[in-house]
Amino acid sequence: MTLVTRRASAPKIPGPARTSPGRRVLRGVLRRPAVATAAGFLLLLIVLAVAGPLISPHDPDTQDLGNRFAGLSWTHLLGTDEFGRDVASRVIQAARIALAAPLISVGVAVLIGLPLGLWAGLRKGLVDAVAGRLADTVLSLPAMVGALAILAVLGPGLVNAMIAIGIIFAPGLFRVVRGATLAVAEETFVDSAVAIGSPTRRTLWVHILPNIAAPLLVQVTILMGVALLAEASLSFIGLGVQPPEASWGSMLKAAYTNQFDAPFSVVPPGVAMVLTVLAFNTIGDAIRDAVGLRRGR
Amino acid sequence: MGIRMIIRRLGGGLLVLWLVSILTFLLVHLIPGDPAEAVAGENATAADVERIRAELGLDRPVLEQYVTWFTGVLRGDLGRSLFTDKTVVDSIAGSAPPTLVITLMAIVVAVLVGVSAGIVAGLTRGSRVDRAVSALATLGIAMPSFWLAMVLVSVFSLTNPWLPATGYAELSEGFGTWLSHIVLPSTALGLATAAELARHTRGCVADVLTRPYIRTARARGASGGWLVRRHILRNAAIPVVTVLGLQAGRLLGGAIVIEAVFGISGLGTLAVNAVLQRNYPIIQGYVLLCAVVVVLLNLIVDLAYGWINPKVRTA
User: Fold this and answer.
1) Residue A70: inside a domain, yes or no?
2) Do A266 and B150 touch (CB under 8 A)?
C-alpha cells in the first residue's frame, strides 16, 4: 500500500461528482499515515477477534501447570501465565471483548442519547428541559462513580458493566447531538421541510441526522476508546469480566497479582490496550480536525 | 462576577445536588425484585430479610421514605452500614484521608508536569521538544492509569527497591515514609491529567503568541521571561482551570482503581466493597459525597474565571 501524505484538498483532480462530501472527508482522513496505521490496526484486531481460534498458536484456556510463568520463546511467543496458559493466545482471545465491550457501551449511549438529543434539539419543550436536567445530574458524577452506582443495582458482570458505562456516556452524547441539531435546525431546508408538513420523525432522520453525522461519528469513535479503558478498570477491580473469561483488564489484574514472579506479564495486555485506545483516538481526532470541529467537550 | 451570578450558579448547583439525591435514593428501589431479599443475599433467613427491610425503611410508603431519608441527609445523617455497626458518615470519614491526599497530590503532579511541558511545547512550536511532548501527551491519554501504576511499581519498587509497592502511611509515621507511599499512586493517577493539561496549555500558549499584543510587547523590547510571566502564564491559566475542574471528578473516579493497585483502603475501596456486598447506605453516601465535591469544584472554577479574567466579571 502506498501512503500519500498530502491532504485530500490539495490536488484538484476532476473526479466523479457523485461522491458525497462526507465520503470525500473520510477518504482524505484515511490518507494520513497515522490514521491509515490506526485503521489498519483496528482491522487486524477485528480479524483476530473473528478468526482468533484459527490463528492463535495454542488453546487460550489449556492449562499447563508444569510450565507456569514461562519466558518468551518460539513455542510461547509472549510466555505463559500463572496457570501455564499461552499469553499470546489469551491476548488474541481477549480482542473479542476489547471490541464487543465498547460496542455495547456506545450502543447503549447512542440508543438513549441520539433520539433524545435529536428531539430536544428540534422540538425543545418538555423533552429538552427534562432530559437536559437529567443530563446535568448524571454528568455531575465522575464516570467511574456513576458506573459503580449503576452496578450496585445491576450487579457485577461484563455486560452489566458495559451497560452501566453506556448509561453514563448517554448524557454527553445527548448534549453533542442536541447542540449539533440546534445548529442544523436553523437551516432553511429544515424550515421548508417543516413548512410543507414533514412529520418530526421524518425531519429528524432524513434532514437532520445526515447533517450531524460528523460530530456524532467523532463522539462515537472517541467513546469507543474511553469505554475500553472503563471496561479494563472495572474488570481490574473485579466488577467487570469474571474469570476464567479473559479481557485485557482481567489479564492485567492477574498479571499484577503475580508481578513478583513474572514482571513481563503486565506488558502484553497493557500494550494491546494502549494501542487500541490510541487507534480509536487517532481516528476520532483526525475526523474532528478534518471537519473543522472544535477540540474539547 | 456579580453577586447575582454567584447566587444563580449556587442555585443551579443545589438543584443538581437535589436531583442526585433523588437518583441515589431511588437506587435501592430500582433493584429488580425484592430489594431487601437482594441485599440480604441467598442464605439469609426470613428474619434477616425483615431486619434489612426495616433498616432500609422499605416497609413504609416511598414518599415517606424519601422525606425521612432526605431530612436525615440534610442533618448529616446518612444512615448505618448494613454489615458493620458504623454509621455511613463515620465509614466515609475514616476512608477519606488517603483518597483526598492522593487526589490532591495527583493534581499537584498534573499541574507541575502538564503546565510546564505545555508551556515549553507551546513556546517552541514545531521543534523536536514540542513533538515529543505532543506524542507523550497522546500516549498519556490513551494509557489506563492502573497500567501506568503497574509499570511504575515494576520499575521503582520491584526492579529498584526505592519506593514501597503497596500501602499507605499516616503523616504521623514520619514525613519521608508518608511521602514515599504517595509518590507512585499520585503520579500514576495524575499523569493522564498532566497529558490533558499539556495539550490545552500548549494550544493556548501557541495561540497567545500569535496575538498582536505579543508582537507589540516584543517590539517594545520585552524580554522572553517578561512575556511568559505577564502574558502567557495568565492566559494559560484559563484552560488549566477549566481542565482541572473537568478532571477533578475523573481523578476521584480514577482513585478507585489506583487504590486497588496499591492496596490503599480509601473511599474507592470502600465503595467497591459496598457494591460487591450490596451495602446500599454506603454507596448512597459515597455517590452523594462525590456529587457534592464535583458541584463545589465547578462553582469554584466559575469563580476563578472571574478572578483570572476580568472580562468575565461583568458577563
Assistant:
1) no
2) yes
